Amino acid sequence: MSTAAVSAGGASGAGFDGARAVADAVLYEGYLLYPYRRSSAKNRMRWQFGVLAPKPWLPADVLQDTNVAGSADAWRQQTECLIQVRSRDAATITVCVRFLQMQHRRVEERTEAGYAPVDALTVSGVRFLTFDEAVPREHEFVVGLAGLREAPLLAEIEVPGGEEIEQLADSGRIVRVRRPLHAVLSLSATPLEAVVPLFRLRLEVSNAAAAPGAGAPRAEALGASLIATHSLLGVAGGRFVSLLDPPAWAEDAAKGCRNIHTFPVLAGAPDEWGVVLSAPILMEDHPRVSPESPGDLFDATEIDEILSLRTLTLTDEEKSEARATDPRAAAIIDRVETMPPEVLGRLHGTIRGQRPAAPVEERAWWEPGADDAIDPATDRVLVDGVPVTRGGRVRLNPRKHGTDVHDMFLIGRTARVEAVLTDVDGTRYVAVSIEDDPGADLHGRHYHFTPEELTRIEGER
To answer: Model-level pTM?
Structure first.
């Protein structure tokens, strides 16, 4: 451990409260999917994001994977982000590492000889199933930037195993078992050349478990894994710099940041710069949970209204199984069944536009054969002052706000125009296919951009 003043655990007052709602959504993303039943095929292969498994268990090609995507099993995460400080010695860094610890729930029936494991047990009309749960864990460290400049912070994260027994009257019991977890945290700061005091902060979190080894079932490896791993980073006496939309003076430094199986974005309110959320799910800066959402549905990318309505269509038997599968699933069923009409109504038709809609008389619309003056196959738009139509080649320069955050990976790529489209508000869009996308022809995969997000390719007619 570095010689810097370090404290671990406890609340730091780092301003994480505004980011916790989104962080909690990351923690339980994919925990249990609709229809929330153990028997559902999609719930037999769980834990898809931020899984840091024991290194000896992973195959060689996975160990060498340094992709930013956090949707595959790995043994470590690396976050690199930028902090701008007022004083090179006065800033304080807070790191909060969060993850789930798997907990196996075993249902046992009472027999003359004692207790015997069973798949399911009904006691006083309530059904209990053997299943894997999870316990949220959180480890926090506070360190001065001055100390990080001298030596990295190295810290052990130890989570003990355990066993808990819950009696089910005289009929049986539930035994919950957790395996111990062992991880290592490394935090370092590197000064960079810039017009203001700027540091590249690197956080590494790795699974240090020695077992299980190669060939063990994934379920066994998950018992020794950190699941849905993500981190909150806070700075006092400075501010973070966006990697998605850095100021011009920090663009080169932002490009030099290397993130592995996680990606950091600014968190909290749009006018706050003191907290970063580094998650295995790529998001835009300042993500937030929709204010209309009445509660977690274990899939932050889904639409609450659709899932709520679908949940109401489950049969009584299906709802009974969902309740027996997991207490969090039972809470979803109960919440949806008792949701007042006005709450459900808030989930329908919410629109957050980026600009006011054009007057009705100015709107243009097109249907095949309805208007000979509009045709996506022959219409053209101006790109850098030059008309472009279907078949033309352009270079992509997606805007940095108000769009799909994944578009950042398309910056600078070349594409071929497939159609020029007009929406009901009269806005023009260009449908393009990425030229080096091997699945474009097979799947008909198109991306849509406004003309302002495209640039000419020199020499193209």
So the answer is: 0.78
- Pick from 255, 230, 225, 2: nearest CA to 132: 225
CATH class (in words) of the domain with range 360-456: mainly beta
Integer Cα distance of 384 and 235 in angstroms = 42
Q: What is the SS3 assignment for 451?
A: helix
| Pair of tokens at residue 213 | 């080894």
Amino acid at 200: R
- Tell me how far CA of residue 380 lies from CA of 236, 397, 426, 453, in angstroms: 51, 19, 14, 15
> Tokens for 195?
């017009």
Contact between 275 and 268 under an 8 Å Cβ cutoff? The reply is yes
209 closest CA partner among 230, 222, 227, 224? 224
Helix 327-337 crosses helix 316-325 at what angle (to 10 degrees)? 140
The model's pLDDT over 400-451, given as tens digits with 9 standing for 90+, comes to 766 666 777 788 899 999 989 887 667 888 999 888 776 666 556 788 899 9
Tokens of 284: 């835009």
State yes or no: pLDDT of 370 exceeds 60. no
**Residues 238, 86 contacting (CB under 8 angstroms):** yes
- What is the per-residue DSSP string for 191-241? EE-SSS-EEEEEEEEEE----S-TT--HHHHHTTSBEEEEEEEEEESEEEE
Nearest to 117 by CA among 128, 133, 126: 128
Q: Indicate the residue type of 71.
A: S
Of 115, 131, 170, 172, whose CA–CA distance to 323 is shortest?
Answer: 131
Q: Quickly count: other Cβ atoms within 10 Å of residue 36's Cβ.
A: 26
pLDDT the model gives residue 441 = 61
Q: Does the pLDDT of residue 10 top 60, yes or no?
A: no
**Tokens, residue 12:** 């730091």
Looking at residue 396, its amino acid is: L
Domain boundaries, the chain: 6-304, 360-456
Cis peptide before 59 (omega within 30 of 0): no
Strands 238-241 and 428-434: unpaired
Q: Which helix (H) or strand (E) holds 32?
A: none
Q: Per-residue pLDDT for 12 more than 50? A: no
The answer to whether 75 touches 262, Cβ cutoff 8 Å, is no
Region 143-169: mean pLDDT is 94
Helix (H) or strand (E) holding 387: strand 386-388
Per DSSP (E only), the strands in 72-197 are 76-85, 92-111, 114-118, 120-123, 126-129, 131-144, 153-159, 162-168, 172-178, 181-192
Q: What is the CA radius of gyration of the chain?
A: 26
Asked whether 28 and 300 are in contact (CB, 8 A), the reply is no
Pair 227, 101: CB distance under 8 Å:
yes
Task: Take residue 440 and report the two structure tokens written for it.
Answer: 């474009």
